[in-house]
Design brief:
By secondary structure, the chain is of the alpha+beta class. The chain contains three helices and four strands. It has one domain.
Length: about 150
């Protein structure tokens, strides 16, 4: 690849035949053939007595509103990937253990931070299609899991 770039900016000539089988096997899989047509972020909502609060957890947003940059709600790339596992686990009724463990952890974190027990924890995925024309609409609020903290 370096030789091809050098050919473009100098008088260097690339040989007619290159004996390397991987030169023509580059992939643009991140962008094609199916680039992402939407993005999402997560919101954790805790019910405690007569109060409903947005939980302040790493990897979740602090409101249901469209953030300026949804990627900023994730601490790291690994956290974003983990939240995808939580979401997929919550979508599959037979293997929802990851979503359940996350909801249990969220209950404990909020209970400790607020100093009172959490009744229920609901994890939402906020789904925003990425429009071609730049006008956002169609924000969807999808329930990943609703967890009874008192029962766990």
């Amino acid at each position: 690849m370096l030789m091809f770039a050098a050919e473009d900016v100098s008088e260097f000539s690339v040989p007619d035949e290159i004996d390397y089988s991987h030169v023509d096997q580059q992939s643009w899989g991140l962008y094609a053939p199916d680039p992402s047509d939407a993005y999402s972020w997560y919101v954790a909502e805790a019910e405690m007595g007569n109060e409903t609060v947005i939980a302040d957890l790493g990897g979740t947003a602090d409101s249901f509103e469209h953030p300026p940059d949804a990627s900023q709600s994730y601490d790291t790339f690994r956290h974003r990937k983990y939240m995808q596992k939580v979401r997929r686990s919550g979508e599959d009724d037979t293997t929802d253990a990851v979503a359940e463990r996350y909801a249990e952890w969220a209950c404990q974190e909020v209970s400790t931070a607020r100093g009172q027990p959490v009744d229920t924890m609901t994890i939402y995925r906020m789904y925003q299609p990425s429009p071609l024309d730049g006008d956002y609409d169609g924000l969807r609020k999808l329930t990943v899991i609703e967890w009874d903290c008192a029962a766990s």
